[in-house]
Write a structure and sequence with these properties.
- The protein has about 270 residues and is mostly helical.
- The protein is about 85% helix and about 0% strand.
- It contains 9 helices and no strands.
- Helix 3 runs antiparallel to helix 4 (about 55-75) and helix 8 (about 190-235) runs antiparallel to helix 9 (about 245-265).
- Residues about 1-10 have low confidence and may be disordered.
Length: about 270
């Protein structure tokens, strides 16, 4: 045990990172993102490397399957937060179009998480493979619905943020031009200019966050589409996917996990 006097010897930045990481891992989403990163890292390793040892390959494949089951079990009851989001969205209702998109995204995500619970029962052998295949198809379609609605919604919001940012930049340029015509020095430290610059910076941060969300949704949409195709292949008993598609899926899953972890990481 470290004495209290010794704790102050650790750098403040290090203590901040450790505390925020512990806070994230104490949440359901934080653990889920870590499991997702590890799972798709293994999947990408299996798709890109030619392991000579069949024992090592089998061990990695079993680990990936176990991580898949762990994520399913860990997300039991997660659909309830989608219901809470729907109730909150009904009270806000900024516009009809955004309301419809938010409602569709929440319903799709809720159905996806709800069906996810039964897929876990398939992995432990409670449900049959045929039932698991049907659940997988329903789950992937629901996730595709959620991702497509969320992408459209974030694209519209990104457009609005960009328009507002352009207006503010034009206002700053107009004020600079006005000062130049008067022969005065344009001072960014003035209260009005500082407020404009701060709002521009805040809008750029929000645009970056929306862009990362769109990337996350696109990656998840690719994974959901592959799940639907996989369920169809199992039904038709056709060949499995190629190694090239496995690489793409591994990259998409890893990108989605990293973006999701970054989005959930607590701010200072």
């Amino acid at each position: 045990r470290i004495p209290p006097k010794k704790m102050s010897q650790f750098p403040t930045r290090t203590r901040g990172y450790v505390e925020r990481t512990v806070a994230l891992l104490s949440q359901r989403d934080g653990v889920d993102k870590v499991l997702k990163i590890v799972r798709y890292s293994i999947r990408l390793l299996l798709a890109t490397s030619a392991l000579d040892s069949p024992v090592a390959r089998k061990a990695l494949e079993d680990t990936e399957t176990a991580l898949w089951s762990s994520r399913k079990a860990h997300r039991i009851g997660a659909f309830l937060r989608c219901y809470a989001a729907l109730r909150k969205q009904r009270r806000l209702v900024p516009s009809i179009s955004s309301s419809l998109l938010e409602g569709t995204a929440a319903i799709g995500e809720g159905v996806y998480y709800f069906v996810d619970q039964f897929q876990f029962l398939t992995s432990v052998g409670v449900l049959s493979r045929r039932q698991g295949r049907q659940l997988k198809m329903v789950s992937s379609i629901a996730e595709l619905l959620h991702c497509s609605s969320d992408i459209i919604l974030n694209a519209l919001r990104l457009h609005n943020l960009l328009e507002r940012e352009v207006e503010l930049i034009r206002e700053l340029r107009r004020r600079r031009r006005l000062f130049d015509e008067r022969g005065q020095k344009f001072d960014l430290s003035e209260e009005v200019n500082v407020a404009l610059v701060d709002e521009v910076n805040a809008l750029r941060k929000r645009r970056f966050l929306r862009t990362m969300t769109i990337i996350d949704d696109l990656a998840n949409a690719v994974l959901a589409l592959d799940d639907a195709r996989d369920a169809y292949r199992l039904r038709r008993r056709t060949n499995t996917a190629s190694s090239r598609s496995q690489v793409v899926l591994g990259i998409c899953g890893l990108v989605s996990g990293l973006v999701g972890f970054w989005k959930k990481y607590p701010a200072r």
